[in-house]
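Q: Give me the 3D complex with cobalt (II) ion.
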Amino acid sequence: MNTDKVKLAIAPIAWTNDDLPSLGAENTFEQCVSEMALAGFTGCEVGNKYPKDPVVLKKQLSMRGLQICNAWFSTFFADGKLDETIAGFMDHMNFLHTMGAKVIGCSEQSGSIQGTDRPIFDDKPTFNDEQWHLVAKGYNKLSEMAAEKGMSVCLHHHMGTAIQTPAEIDRFMAEVEPSVGLLLDTGHIYYSEGNQTVIMDILNRYMNRIPHVHLKDIREEKRQQVINEHRCFLDGVRLGAFTVPGDGVIDFKPIFDALDKAGYEGWMVVEAEQDPSVANPLEYAFKARQYIREIAHI
Ligand SMILES: O=C1C[C@@H](O)[C@H](O)[C@@H](O)C1=O
Ligand SMILES: [Co+2]
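A: Here is the predicted complex, encoded as structure tokens.
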């Protein structure tokens, strides 16, 4: 891949998991960012332990050759919370803008069961036509606001939300303006559908609307356990359903080839939440970095 166009980042979720704070409670911000840099990454996303003051955060990151490329934002448009969501987005966008990020990855969380104990493969929500309309209206507005700052908004499809499956991603992409992008998360598509073809289909269909990529791999036997035992999303994380690229069932070579061929420009973020007391974050960061170097030549 072209190193002038593609940059590699890693998410703090492998060190400290904001969705499941007991995972990595012992790990500090300083350890996390130092190990990201040590493993050879030049960017990262944002975790709850990061300093909130942009000046302090910038200093800590620049000492380690890191920059912020994105941070998760939850939207609640289908629940009718337009004003609250936009107010929160404004602060979030301004923070990311100050930090020099260009994209804002958002997830529509109305009805989401990802943080609950409900079975992830049985109880996911769906939207009716009116809710789809509210979501599209909201995302178009966010995209307009971001454009004024020279930034772009993309939707993170996610397990346990109403935008999880390929059909739901298609519906979202058809409802919103072309300026709204898709944050491709390889692990979440595979987790939902159980095959690599779907990742390639989504990638090929929306290539020119993908401004940000999350590289997540899946341990298939753990995924099967989650399905068979009707486990919730966070149980899956505890069990180790997610891992770094190169350690699971996904073949990233065709993914990198397709991105490269299409001239992808932006960040690719290794994001693999698992129990840091079982899967040492530094060791797994190195493992991911080495695998990407070998097969993407970056
Ligand atoms: O991008 C992400 C952020 C996390 O908080 C989330 O649960 C994870 O699965 C993910 O893909
Ligand atoms: Co992700």
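A quick observation: The longest helix spans residues 129-148.
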